[in-house]
Amino acid sequence: MxxxxxxxAGGVLAYLMGSFSSAVWIGKWFYNTDVRTQGSxxxxxxxxxxxxxxxxxxxxxxxxILKSWGxxxxxxxxxxxTLNESQFITYQIVVxxxxxLGHVFPVxxxxxxxxGVASLVGVIxxxxxxxxxxxxxxxFATVFIITRYVSLASITASIFFSILAIFIxxxxxxxxxxxxxxxxxxxxxxxxxxxxxxxxxEESKLSxxxxxxxxx
Length: 216
Description:
The chain has about 220 residues and is mainly α. The protein folds into two domains: about 1-125, no CATH class; about 130-205. It contains eleven helices and no strands. About 40% of the residues are buried.
């Protein structure tokens, strides 16, 4: 197969992997519930916790992280040895972005997906220093424990990640620097409604509870 076609195939696969909306399918398969019709209407881990319970939400979060991480890891299969180091990193960023795009606009579930936070975490784990991920995770956990606002924890963590990658760990690759900066823009944009609710004091806090019994 032509080398360019292989690269394109990798991008298409990444989008399709991202389009597997675990929140929707787990809800339908095991709970006879479409999470997009309840709670915030978002097909992500946070709303899954609200609608289906903690166990289901954690599974959704892990799957959403793994699908984008896997998409970036599979880039090597499609790129082979045809790209130099800089080109390969760029290709990884592209397939990672396509996986996140698939999560936000999934072709399999009517283009109505999640906000992309967990999927972006998978990309970050694949492309950046593990220390950055651990520090961002610590920040997220701290903000969430103090406030119980997942949205606030996600927004501030995205900005904190960008600061770490660019100014603390001094990322050298130009495209990874750009990606870090874009993440600090993308996450707040996908949470613009949450930001409005936070400013009005109307944002819902997340409380953990047992999952409801699956519908019979």
